[in-house]
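JOB MANIFEST
job_type = single_chain_structure
chain_count = 1
residues = 131
[input]
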Amino acid sequence: MNCADNEAGIESLYAAWRDAFQRRDLEAIIGLLTPDYILWAPGRAPTDVAALRPQLAAALVAYDVDSTFEREERLMGGDLAIECGWDVQTLRPRDGGAARTGRQRVLLVLRRSSDGRWRFARGMSQPGPAA
């Protein structure tokens, strides 16, 4: 796979991620993670897919989520890519409350799976300033 194909595949992953959140499609979101996905968030134990699933399900019931990624750097080698940047999420309570937008600095590891699709393999976040 050439560099342009990898770039397009990674951009497709981010588009699918945003779309899955907008559709509130839990299974589609989980499908964009590797089976061994781990999230490291401040003050919390590492979170795997099994622990993340109910958290995502609860968020999708309570909020409409718009998730975007502001890339600052991408490093690629073989079937791995490292992304540094900002995860920006706007949460709109489904019960009609005020929307909130938050930013967090993230370091992401993406892995190309045997089917050729890129998926999120690891994530590390740090709270950032209000958006």
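[summary]
The chain has three helices and six strands.
The mean pLDDT is 94.
exit_status = 0
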